[in-house]
Amino acid sequence: MNKLLLFYTRCRYVFLSAVRIYVFGVALFLITAIQAMSQNRAVSGTVKDSGGEGIPGASVLIKGTTTGTTTDSNGKFTLSAPDNAVLVVAFVGYEKVEVPVNNQSEINVTLQSSTTELAQVVVVGYGTQRKVDVTGATASVKGEELAKQPVLTATQAIQGKAAGVQIISSGQPGSSPVIRVRGTGTALAGTAALFVVDGVLTDDISNINTADIVSMDVLKDASATAIYGSRGANGVVIITTKKGSAGGIKVNYTTNIGMRSATNLVQMANAQEYANYVSAASGTSVTPGSVSTDWYDQILRNGWYQNHNLSLSGGSDKSTYFLSMGYFTDEGIVIDNKYKRFNIRSNTDFTLSDKVKVGVVSSYTNANTRDVNLGSAYNNAYRAAPTIAAMENGKYGNTSVYQNVGNPILDIKNNNQRDIDNRLQGSAYLEFKPVRSLTFRSSIGGDLLSKNERVYNYQFNNDTSTFINPGGNQRNPNSNLNIISTRSFRWVWDNTLTFSQSFDKHNLTVLVGTTAEQYTMDWLSAFRKDVPADPSLWYINTGNANTSTNDGGGDKWARNSYLGRVNYNYNDRYLLTATVRADGSSRFPSSNRWALFPSVGAGWVISGENFMQTQQIFETLKLRASWGRVGNDRIPSDAFTVTVTPNLAYPYGGGIATPGSAITQIKDPNLKWEVTEEFDLGLDFALLKGRLTGEIGYYNKKSKDLLINVKVPSVTGDADGVVLTNAASIQNVGLEVALNWRGNITEEITYRVGGNLTLNNNKVIGLNGGQPILDGGIGGNQIYTTRTDNDQPVGSFYLLNVVGVFQNQGEIDNYKNSKGTIIQSSASPGDFKYQDTNDDGKIDDNDRVFAGSYQPKAYFGINGSLSYKGFDLSADIYGNVGNKVYNGKKAFRLGVFDNVEADMAYSRWTPANGSQTEPAANGGNLPASTYFLESGSFIRLNNVTLGYNLPATLTQKVKVASVRVFITAQNLYTYKKFSGFTPELPGDPTKAGIELNAYPTTRTIAGGLSVNF
Amino acid sequence: MKHTLIVISISLILFGIFTSCSKEFLDVPVQGQGTTKTDPALAQNLVTGVYNSLLAGEAFGGDGGDTHGISFIAATNIMSDDADKGSTPSDQSALNDIDNFTISPTNTFVAALWNGYYTGISKANQALVALSTASLTDVTKNKLIGEVRFIRGYYYFNLVRLFGKVPKVLRVPKDAQDANTDPEFQTRASVDTIYNVIIQDLQFAANNLPLRSNASVGHVDKGAAQTLLAKVYMYRKEWQKVFDLTQEVISSGQYDLVADYSTIWRQIGDNSIESVFEIQTGQFNNSDYGIQGYSVWQGPRVGGKGGWTDLGFGFGTPSANLVNAYEANDVRKASTIIVIDNSGQHKGTVLFDGFRIPSADSVQNLYYNYKAYHSENSSIETFNGNRDRKQKNVHLLRYAEVLLMNAEAANELGQSNTATTLLNRIRKRAGLQDTNASSQTDVRDAIWKERRFELAMEHDRFFDLVRQGRAAQVMQAAGKNFVAGKNELLPVPSLQIALSGGQLDQNNGY
Fold it and tell me: Residue ranges of the RagB/SusD domain (chain B) (predicted)?
């Protein structure tokens, strides 16, 4: 024991743990023997950091030689050097310094913390590491970067900020964007990355106030994510919220207020254009009349948005605290829509003794959404005839009697939907360090969500009390009220033991742990008709009891895991990380319940080698490689159990029906884990004194036994026609490059330019013996539009190929296959000429061809900033290229009286213009073809922010530490080829990239203020 | 060192706790959903679930498909010369395609029928599995099996008449792999094979079901099984069997004609003495519970000047061809067709419940199907406000057809006199004189004609024309674009062909 204690006293510990993370990464540096090298002058001194603390283990070399030493536990060194020598003093995480000896015998050096990314501490699963020690691929985005953007969730704010991370965000308010890390490697709704908020695992972070976030760390490759095993296949995003620090009370108030407006709207035909087109299409003359309604204009507006945050932080050496309060309101761009969020957070830490620490992070969020029927309102706004008046004297234009399309304004006004979410999320930990090298940590996290949805549908009839003229099918003879109450609770219990020790130049950290997690949910729904229209009576008891119905259900699942990780670092040059996680999930049958997810990663800090000390170019250079396996279990809890659907009743002999039941779903009793195996190679570097930093990465991801909802023939009797099973294998191979340059033009003008680019190639490499997967049906006779098949990207569009437009009857008669059969004998001039791919003399599904997919070939982000004195200006650009999107809303056109896009009204084929690309005026209902397929490439100016920090001399007069004002613009400009609203179309990968409900995207202009006291 | 040991032991204990209890921890039963093991009355409940499939009417790709909703109405009435698509000209162009024989294999209504019948068949197969192991008396078990096999046989009968060759599916697929690979699910069996399945199912039902008087109201009984089996044999032209079976139904003494034809399709006519097999409706979950969409799709629709709250979407309207074909004084015409007042005198049309439909300038179409009309006046017929599932029983087999089948079989067997006696019984109720047909050919024609009016808008006409081998002749005469050798059958849905990897073959001409 004494020996051990002695050993410890010779050691000096450097804690690199950042704020409240599960495991403290410990770096330990040992004294090495001092080598007296020559007969020259003996030089001694201390290497210190900017805080005056000695830095142990720093290298002190004589420039141009391999001669040198390292500092001792107090940062002291002694060596012998020629009088004219130059000493190169370096330590990882600090700027390298060169000092001429100049006959001095004592040289004290102060190293400045390096600002390069490699030196930063990054959060990894169940711990932190210096970026330089990480063997996996990770990306980190700072909280400040996120907070300045006027967005609801932080996910949206990291778009374009990290290589290999694709954010697909629809324009729908309150919706969470989809994150794809390194291509689409999984096909279900569970494609979203896993979020870990202060250790609590979650799929939804819309409750997290962006202003409370310190950093978001994206774990990209298997070496980094394998510690999350089954949850890691789609990448892991670790969110760390703010903590207090010792010192006086710090108060911060931040606000931004702005205006949202619709952008990239599709121009629809006006009344005259519509009348011309529909007259030509239907053969009956339509006259435009006096009104010309722009339906999008009728349902859209400019909406205000505001965000206020107040935080308080501080502490002593025994305890720290961070308290915050946020209030966010967003009107959105659609009439009646509104979102309000109020949240409070309290993060505290207590040091009970030098061995015991405890802490709690917690947040409460109340979100209130006034929802509108966006789907039907947008869809109907696209289809409704412009010749019908929107409203006159408080009465609605009757579009449904004219063309069977609901009046879009009434779609919104005929109901009142309100959702209230109350969410309590937090975790508490206990950390115990019996001896310095050993840390035991236990943490329990919980996430309680209570959701209350209230939908009231007003009573109205299709008569002249509601409409300008009566009739049609937009009516609701009885008012009704539906209240749905959902409660869910999830807990996670993590226990980890970390051993960290250094022996000579060997640095070793070993982590072992267990985690257990359980989720329970139940919901209850009540419904009654004839509830009065007064909002104060919108409670179930006021309705007609004879119409009461109710429903309910629940869910429960559990996971249990064992994990281990070894980090080994030899002399800060050679790095090895090995992890293993055994995961058990209740969502798989007991025979396939457990799976093992190992990974191994190696790194070589080339810049740490002696031979690199003589060069001036690279400050850091690191090569890393890793291999690992991760999984995905995000499938419904009932996926492998054959269940019986109740309440399929039959009223024998009339009267009250007898309840019956049926087995309507085929289940796969042998469901197993979806496993992704990934190989990763990367090079991280910092050049020119850290001015240029960057990384280059290559990855090869193979996802096997993908869990997919496979369409099965109707003869199997599966009611929804899809069965969840392990159906395919997908490969993603890609290259990522990220470069950042910072420099200054003059002393006062500094700037940063960064960019990242990801090239990805996605393809299906196996179908597990099954059929290709058909998906992307949009109704009408476009029953499917995509086919997931071998050697094609997942969800590839599979369509008839339009080769032209028939100009005259002669062309139709002459369009024959090799046997002389007229291929489209029933066509008329102005109809599309489709490719008879199989040369069988007719056009049918067998003539479809692969026509590209939604998977982009590349995506990129560019960001830059410039600062001059108190001013700073920054801009982000994001884009992707090489993918396709399907104009589903145009393809869905089923009725001859549906409106058309203005462009179609003008470019339609006529015998005179002889168009080869646009058909003659038609009533829609066309087959799925390449006509509806368009380029998905786009580039967008995502955010521009101009800020100004008031001079301290000014602020101190009013006893304010700092004041910053800024203006910001989100989604300022998009360049796209797609004629629809947006090419960013989240969706299940087997049917992604289809624009059906056409949400206009939102532009935001906002101004803000941040004050620190 | 002591501390180290403590921590290690704590950790080991924690590991131990989890290792020992994780088996149970991860054994989470599915919440809120029963399994085949949790329901002691599973078999009986599954049988009711099979009956439930009779009410399916999801025409646009929804779960469960369509057995008797608008897709069924389209493929039987609208496709025939008795009815037109109706509604507005542009509404539901895929129904125009069915009306005009321009149907493509991507037609959503055709796909819904395929899906609906096979979903029903699958429910039947599931119920049969559960019944085979259920602890019930043999009599009860065989009765339940008989009911299920009747419905399965009926669905195959519709499938074979709509599509010709179809896959023969008599078992439950084990999983998706099985469903996607076994040729049984991927290829079509011959028409003869399918008819054999139907005959075996119906024969079992006929042998094991009780007579109507011993059966619960609304359940399939022996008479229903015998009648449907007779009808199947009629399509196979096995006239002796048709005759014997219908004779047995007649002599069972369980059935008779109701006096007033107009009551058959009203709620007062539900499960009448004439009813042999009808789809039941009632209430469930505090709402109406009938065939999805059956009434509302066929309800009179506002048009022109408007000014009234209409009753439905106006599809499946009786054709002028049918309206003009009735003999004068045939009481069945006014009970079958709602005729909109087009006289210019604005009298409107008053229905049996007193509801007044305005005259033609406010209504979309000139004729509507009276047999699909269900009153919204809850003092006349039961109505709880759910238009989509009105309590409209659909009469699939009734005694009048038993008599007509018996007559047709008798005539084919050379007993034309017996045939005309039966025929005149039908004509008498319709307020018509006795037939003057006497030769076998004339009597056959007379019976065929009588079937058209007696069973008008009752989903029989198109199948009947194909059975009689004169579909092309009659349809072309009615001005329809019917191609002989093609349009007798619907196309196999293209998605199903694609899902079979191309193993399902397409019908001729599509």
Answer: 274-485
User: What pLDDT score was predicted for residue A4?
Assistant: 36
In angstroms, what is the C-alpha Rg of chain A?
Answer: 32
Q: Which amino acid appears at position A257 of this protein?
A: I
List the domains of chain B with CATH numbers.
Answer: 42-252+488-499 (1.25.40.390), 288-373 (no CATH)
**Mean pLDDT in residue range A390-410:** 91
Q: Between residues A346 and A19, which one has the greater pLDDT?
A: A346
Place of tokens 């078999």: B43
Put simply, whether A893 touches B (Cβ < 8 Å) is no
**Is A29's pLDDT higher than 70?**
no
**A554, A717, A770 member nearest B121 (Cβ):** A717
Q: How confident is the model at residue A38 (pLDDT cuts 50, 70, 90)?
A: very low
Residue A10 pLDDT > 50, yes or no? Answer: no
Domain boundaries, chain A: 31-112, 118-243, 802-847
Mutate to test the interface with A, among B2, B6, B7 (most CBs of A within 10 A): B7
User: How confident is the model at residue A779, as a pLDDT?
Assistant: 75
Residues on chain B touching A650 (C-beta within 8 angstroms): 48-49, 51-52, 54-55, 218, 280
Partner-chain contact A548 B286, CB within 8 Å: yes
Of B304, B311, B309, nearest in space to B359 by CA: B304
Check B169 against A717: CB less than 8 A apart: yes
CATH class of A118-243: mainly beta
Claim: this prediction has a pTM higher than 0.90: no
Closest CA relative to residue A557, chosen from A513, A597, A516: A516
* Helices B440-454/B399-412 angle, 10° precision: 170
Q: How confident is the model at residue A234 (pLDDT cuts 50, 70, 90)?
A: confident
Task: Tell me which range, A471-485, A898-912, B193-207, is most confidently predicted by mean pLDDT.
Answer: B193-207
Give residue A412's pLDDT.
94
Identify whether the C-beta of residue A192 lies closer than 8 Å to the C-beta of residue A179. Answer: yes
Supply the pLDDT for residue A190.
55
pLDDT at A817: 93
* CB within 8 Å: B42 and A644: yes
**Average pLDDT of the segment spanning A962-967:** 90
Quick check: A589 contacting B, CB < 8 Å? no
Name the CATH code of domain A31-112 (choices 1.10.540.10, 3.40.30.10, 3.30.460.10, 2.60.40.1120). 2.60.40.1120
Q: Chain A residue closest to B91 (CA)?
A: A895
Question: Do A656 and B283 lie within an 8 Å CB cutoff?
Answer: yes
Q: Tell me whether residues B286 and A845 touch, CB distance under 8 A.
A: no
CA gap A890, A868 in Å, rounded:
49
Contact A771 B180 (CB under 8 A): yes
Residues of B whose CB is below 8 A from A927: 106
Do the Cβ atoms of B116 and B161 come closer than 8 Å? no
Q: Shortest CB distance from A716 goes to which of B15, B30, B122?
A: B122
Tell me whether residues A779 and B108 touch, CB distance under 8 A.
yes
Residue-wise pLDDT for A661-692, tens only, equals: 999 888 888 888 888 899 999 999 988 877 89
| Under 8 Å between Cβ of A707 and A186 | yes
Q: Which amino acid is at B449?
A: K
Distance from CA of A711 to the nearest CA of B (A): 7
A653: left (phi over 0), alpha (psi -120 to 50) or beta: left
Pick the closest to residue B152 from B46, B242, B51 (CA basis): B51
Closest CA to A831 of A839, A820, A823: A823
Rounded CA-CA distance A583/A563 in Å is 9
- B217 to A652: CB separation less than 8 angstroms, yes or no: yes
Cβ-based contacts of B495 with chain A (< 8 Å): 711, 774, 777, 783-784
ipTM greater than cut 0.90:
yes
